[in-house]
Write a structure and sequence with these properties.
Heat Shock Protein 90, alpha+beta, 223 residues, 2 domains
Length: 223
């Protein structure tokens, strides 16, 4: 997997440069048009189109950044540590995002015996799942839940929500790179979660949540 990602990363860097050069030109042109020119008619439509151009340019840049992050992952650094402490830190930084939406954030970090894992990457995987859960949760009565628990040979990280859930026909493709059902999605976040889980000798799975939405589980092993 690492060798394939290294080859992909080298190719991705070249492709990203080729995309960014014309993209920067388009972005700067849109900024100049917005700042320096005033249409003589249809001003509202003019500014609407410029706003759309700049928004789509930003989205392309975000897709490039997400892909490069996926294709050029940092070296895995396994350090003996506490999973519930690492995710407790993540929970505190994520909580304000839920509060801003009026979504209830439930955290149940059960003790897990220390084992070696890459704290930064595991936190990134959990954060990707939490962001998706928050996006899926309804504005009225929304719930996002983060749970850790020990297993016989490792630990499980669970992220649940009470959104619409994941249709059965999408579950086989949901971790594929660039598969997304969100209008502004990049299709990279869940692929990154899958990669991080596999690199830790584990896996990620999706199921129905007792909250009536989706439940994602990252299974990590001690070995």
């Amino acid at each position: 997997l690492r060798q394939r990602l290294a080859a992909m990363g080298s190719l991705a860097s070249g492709v990203a440069r080729e995309i960014r050069n014309p993209l920067n030109t388009v972005t700067m042109a849109a900024q100049r048009l917005d700042r320096e020119f005033t249409p003589v008619e249809d001003a509202e439509e003019y500014h609407r189109l410029l706003h759309s151009m700049r928004g789509e340019s930003s989205r392309i840049e975000r897709i490039i950044e997400e892909f490069l992050r996926f294709a050029r992952p940092p070296e895995l650094v396994l350090t003996l540590g506490s999973l519930e402490v690492a995710l407790g830190e993540l929970a505190e930084t994520f909580r304000p995002s839920c509060e801003a939406r009026g979504v209830r954030f439930e955290v149940d970090l059960q003790p897990v015996p220390e084992f070696p894992f890459d704290s930064d990457q595991v936190k990134q995987a959990a954060l990707n799942l939490l962001r998706n859960a928050l996006d899926a949760a309804p504005d009225e009565g929304g719930i996002v839940r983060l749970v850790t628990r020990a297993t016989e040979n490792g630990a499980v990280i669970e992220v649940e929500d009470n959104g619409p859930g994941i249709p059965e026909e999408e579950r086989g493709r949901i971790f594929d790179l660039y598969f997304t059902t969100k209008p502004d999605g990049t299709g990279v976040g869940l692929a990154m979660v899958h990669r991080i889980a596999v690199e830790h000798g584990g896996r990620v799975e999706v199921d129905d949540s007792p909250l009536a939405g989706a439940a994602f589980r990252i299974m990590l092993t001690r070995d």
